Amino acid sequence: MTQLKVQGISHAFDILEVLNDVSFTVEAGELTCLVGPSGCGKSTLLRLIAGLEQTQSGSITLEGEVLSAPAHSVPTRLRRIGLVFQQPSLFPHLTVCENIAFGLHGQPKDRVAAAVEELLAVIGLAERSKAYPHQLSGGQQQRVALARALAPKPRLMLLDEPFANLDHALRCDMREEVLGMLKQTGIPVVMVTHEPEEALIMADKMVLLRADGRVHQYASPQEIYRAPVDAEAAAFFGVINRIGGYVEEGQVVSPLGIWSQSACGVEMTDGSKVDIIVRPESLRLANDADIAATVNEVWATAVGWMTAAKLSGGISVRFMIPYAQGIKPAFGDHVNLHCDGAHIFPA
Amino acid sequence: MIRSKSYISITLAVMIAAPLFIIAAGWVVADKGTFSYYLSNNLISIYALNSAIISMAVSTCALGIGICTAWAVTMLAFPCRGLMEWLLVLPLAMPAYVAAMIYGDVLQGAGPVQSWIRELTGLSYGEYYFPAVHSLGGVVFVLSFTLYPYVYLLARSAFLSQSRQMLECGETLGLTGYSLFTRLALPMARPALVAGMALVAMEALADFGVVALYGVPAFTTGIYRAWQGMYDPVAAARMACILLAMVLFALAIERRARGQASYHNNNALYHPLPRYRLSGIAQLGVLLGCSLPVLLGFIVPLALIMQWSMEHVALFADTSTLQALGNSLLLAILTVAVAITVGLWFAYALRGQIPKAGRWAIRLATAGYAIPGSVIAVGVLLLFILLQQYVLPGGWLLTGSLLGIVWGCVLRFLTVAFQSAETGLGQVMPQMDAVASTLGASGRGILWRVHLPIMQASLLSGMLLVFVDTLKELPATLLLRPFNFDTLAIRTYELAGDELLHRAAPTALLLVAASLLPVWLLNHKMAAAGRGDVP
Q1: Which residues in chain A touch residue B453, judged by CB atoms under 8 angstroms apart?
Q2: For B390-399, how does the pLDDT look when each residue is reduced to its tens digit (9 = 90+)?
Q3: How many H-runs (helices) and E-runs (strands) does chain B carry?
Q4: Are B495 and B68 spatial neighbours (Cβ–Cβ below 8 Å)?
Q5: Residue A158 and residue A143: Cα distance in Å, rounded?
Q6: Between β-strands B276-277 and B76-77, what pairing exists: parallel, antiparallel or unpaired?
Q7: Which of B437, B439, B534 is opposite residue A134, by nearest beta carbon?
Q8: Fewer CB near the last or first residue (10 Å), C or N of chain A?
């Protein structure tokens, strides 16, 4: 059974439209990432699901129960939805233990104690149960916030950039840890993130939103990487080479090679212009290749030398030379490139 | 729902601030000729000149004392430095009119100091020079030593919050001790210092007790005279307007300075600043220099009040003292209850969606702390007179009722209650509400389980401050009190005015004791901020 169903959600603040006909579903045990540029309505969507904003059009259903519709709204406190913000937002007057137990108010004491103890063990903070939030590190605070949200056994978890305030190493650790915890519970999760890497690691599905609040692409991260719907979607995962080409005798012609027009996905007449997107990792050095280029800039990255080179037509492209190859290009080097794949869109 | 709450907030704010609007009406209503009499006899210009001299001289002296002591306790290592750090705040607990009463007695011709000089030198009265205490200079002396802690506190916090790295940068660029202070620390602390100076100027302008006891004509005494002596509320209102304009000028300077307060680094975690070691004699000099303001502003007056109180122990149990204590407590409790409730309401209103006009109305209603008690009192009285003339003819007698005195005190001290509520509410991040409701808490549950516990410390300190400020308030209570309603402050002032200084000591001692509470609280907060604790 589909756990969360968001259907046709549109939302505006005064005249500013932030969400436009957004629809997606989340199954049990699935983590869906909301990604997109700043201001595209990701957090608003999360707030609508939590019931913190009144739905203007469309509907939100959880486990078959309509939570939000224009004339109907289940109060936030009755939705049983867990929410974790970028800031841990722990209650400063309560200890770790009391923070986790906040949502279990009114339940028998022994049951609350057992639930808190279990969660403390899961987040590895059993020894800090009596500490106050300000005595914890950022990562510890965020773990407590997660445990607090999980304590009342929510039907859905909402995470609003939960790792954005953590340093890189801690962020990587926390991602794995949190993913493990959430998968264990089987609760569906909706997470807002800015980080393509985070979405790739954590998400089962991704809702890529445009700046105008429309859904740009809704698919798994791997699919969006492999088959983006357009250049903007392709650009989400990092640097791309975007060069122009044209259709001639049923083929796409470009300085990076010739492809069959069928790769474009749409029928185009001869002379039509196209956008060709090539990821840096799809270009590689090959002595027998016929794309000649001259290196004009090189810089180090975590995985290899990111190299910028000019093609014979003056077009600049970037490509990656893994360190494992043992080659360090230099300014002015003449190289031959081979293109392993490209995404082609009508211009 | 939101709209109705906004309307309630706006109505409440306008109602509370109504006395402030009313005093402006003084210019359109005809007076009994007192104002033109004052004007033609140059009394208005004398009031204006004296008030301006007092505020400027006091703020300059307080600036000097405040900066030197704050720099010394922050940057220099000397014996008893930690003790001096909080002793220097103590004069805040000494109501200026109590100190004035003491010095008026001690330094007058027949007082112990001049008697001792005559005994020592063999000279007679008039054969030597001794500055007159019942003078403009005397007012400046008393106010400077009781008000300097405003500058001291702000300067100290500015010096403490200056980033250590910044001062270390200065040192690497060749600055040392004195030049570090004059070229870096002082310019960086300038917004805080100007703000402190403006606060002192406002307090000095608002002072009534000291100028009245020393017989120096100023606007506050002029207002009192016009009302109580000439029974001319319109003339009092006109003078109140002029005084208000002077205060607003000082307030504008303070706001401007506060606008630039981002000079220093407030976010820096506490790293103790390196303190300069001094030679033995220099250490002693600094210790004595820091002790002087504490001695003059607190210890000497306190010692004398205690001595006089011991001489009149029976007065503590005197019916009139107990009655004054009871009245003071009643007034303070009522003021606290109303001010904190309204302050909380306004803080919540500003947190939610409220039209711009509402924001302005609330800002105005909560600006009373900057407005002299005598101005507020005139506004309340004038409002009551107009209400009785046009709205409630033959109805309740509003003037001289408990309602008037509570209204005046609430308008005067609502700022404190509101700011503490706002500070408390500021600690509740909006996300906490969202999280609490996703965890099943209802609106009331969020208030009781999240908001109030977080705001508790701020609200308590706000209540304490309003309580003590109300106990100490003199001009507003003096003008607005119901018939035969003496408070501790009024009784102290009246006995001192009647030259019954020693009999005023017990009530004065009770006032000082009560005033120590907020000072203790302030020191506690300063210590916590110094340690970088989260309150």
Answers
A1: 91, 93-94
A2: 777 665 666 7
A3: 27, 2
A4: no
A5: 14
A6: parallel
A7: B534
A8: N
Residues in chain B with CB shorter than 8 Å from the CB of A76 are: 434, 437-438
Mean pLDDT in residue range B84-113 = 89
Task: List the strands of the sheet with A343-346, edge to edge.
Answer: A257-260, A251-254, A241-248, A273-278, A343-346
- A124's tokens: 């590895």
Integer CA distances (angstroms), B450 to A82, A92, A261, in order: 17, 9, 63
pLDDT tens digit string along B73-88? 988 888 888 899 889 9
Q: Which DSSP state fits B194? A: H
d(CA B157, CA B23): 37
Strand locations in A220-290, DSSP E? 241-248, 251-254, 257-260, 273-278, 283-285
Decide if B397 touches A, using CB distance below 8 A. Answer: no
User: Which of B152, B146, B51 is CA-nearest to residue B99?
Assistant: B146
pLDDT band for position B266 (cuts 50, 70, 90): very low
Query: Does position B2 have pLDDT exceeding 70, yes or no?
Result: no
The percent of residues above 70 in pLDDT, for chain B, comes to: 92
Q: Is B3 exposed, middle or buried (0-12, 13-18, 19+ CB in 10 A)?
A: exposed
CB contact under 8 A, A152 and B427: no
3-state secondary structure of B94: coil
**Taking residues B469-496, what's their average pLDDT?**
87
pLDDT band of B274, cuts 50, 70, 90: low
CB-based contact (8 Å) between B435 and chain A? yes
Which amino acid makes up residue B328? S
Phi, psi of A74, deg, nearest 5: -80, 130
Tell me how close the Cα of B246 comes to any Cα of chain A, in angstroms. Answer: 43
Cβ distance of B435 and A75 shorter than 8 Å: no
B259 pLDDT tier (thresholds 50, 70, 90)? low
Q: Specify the amino acid at residue B330.
A: L
Give this complex's ipTM. Answer: 0.77
CA distances from B273 to A213, B72, B74, B87, B279 (A): 51, 12, 8, 20, 19
The backbone torsions φ and ψ at residue B332, rounded to the nearest 5 degrees and listed phi first, read: -65, -40
Cα first-last separation, chain B:
34
Chain B, residues 399-428, CB within 8 A of chain A, namely: 427
- What confidence tens digit (pLDDT) does each residue in A167-224 have? 888 788 888 888 888 888 889 999 999 888 888 888 999 999 988 899 999 999 999 9
B505: which 2 tokens?
């000591």
pTM metric for this prediction = 0.75
- Would you tell me how many other CB atoms lie within 10 Å of the CB of residue B62? 29
β-pair type (A65-69, A72-73) = antiparallel
DSSP B393-431: TTS---TTSHHHHHHHHHHHHHHHHHHHHHHHHHTS-HH
Token pair 């209503």 is at which residue? B29
The H or E element containing residue A345 is: strand A343-346
Mutant choice from A54, A74, A77, A141 vs B, greatest count of B C-beta within 10 A: A77
Please name every residue paired with A11 in a beta bridge, in sequence order, or none if there are none.
A19
Q: Is B282 helix (H, G, I), strand (E, B) or coil?
A: helix
* pLDDT < 50 stretches in chain A: none
The DSSP 8-state label assigned to residue A8 in this structure reads E
A335 bridge partner residues: A293
Which DSSP symbol is given to B131? -
**How far, in Å, CA of B306 to CA of B506, rounded?**
8
Residue A207's contacts (CB-CB under 8 Å, 6 or more residues apart) are A22, A24, A32, A33, A34, A35, A215, A218
Burial of A57 (0-12, 13-18, 19+ CB in 10 A): middle
